[in-house]
Write a structure and sequence with these properties.
five-stranded mixed barrel, two-stranded antiparallel sheet, 8 strands, protease
Length: 213
């Protein structure tokens, strides 16, 4: 795993609405736009093979901004299709804070970033000491039943706390603002509590994308 002093000061960013990457988690991506194919080619040539995932925001003038916190991932798997598209997997390394966007000649966006405050992201698997797993699984059962989703319960029940909470945070269909709240949670416990709140709100018929604004 990349260690804190080796993280780059400038990284390519991929603003993708609703796509959430978390430290030590894996995010599959299908890359086909020319600018992002160029981004991937450049990332593969770099020493870190890193890309930053960031939620885009809308500015008052209609331009596309970037959320202040994202998560960088290392390209750990990739394959190329016959028509030149890429199927890749990013493995989360660390969150970062966007300092400024960098002007340049690349077709994709790049940012100067700070990794300060996210040193814990590169440690071992995080624990959630107050996790009431039976109650959480019962809540999930109600949620999946309401969404008419088939679930591999064996896989969920066998997953460690961090893998379970982070995977659900990434996979469940919440709005970009809610995904950002899950990303910015300072600990696994806080992320699990936020996730529970979002699921409970959805079960009450709420529109989760408006809940955490």
């Amino acid at each position: 795993m990349t260690k804190y002093p080796d993280l780059p000061e400038t990284i390519a960013v991929f603003p993708l609405p609703g796509a959430l990457l978390l430290p030590r988690a894996r995010l599959p991506l299908h890359i086909f736009e020319p600018r992002y194919l160029a981004m991937l080619d450049d990332a593969l040539k770099s020493g870190t093979r890193m890309i930053g995932m960031v939620q885009p925001t809308s500015a008052p003038d209609g331009s596309s901004g970037l959320s202040r916190i994202g998560c960088a991932g290392r390209i750990t798997q990739f394959s190329e299709t016959e028509d030149g598209r890429y199927m890749i997997t990013l493995t989360g390394v660390s969150r970062f804070r966007v300092l400024r966007e960098v002007d340049g000649f690349t077709p994709y966006r790049r940012c100067d970033v700070s990794w300060s405050g996210f040193e814990r992201d590169q440690g071992g698997v995080e624990r959630d000491e107050g996790f009431d797993r039976p109650a959480f699984m019962a809540l999930l059962d109600r949620y999946f039943d309401g969404q008419n989703l088939d679930v591999d319960w064996g896989t969920l029940e066998d997953a460690e706390d961090e893998l379970l909470v982070n995977s659900l945070s990434m996979l469940l269909d919440f709005g970009p603002e809610d995904k950002q709240a899950l990303l910015e949670a300072p600990s696994l416990t806080t992320r699990r509590e936020t996730l529970v709140t979002l699921i409970e709100y959805a079960l009450r018929g709420g529109i989760t994308k408006d809940f955490l604004q």
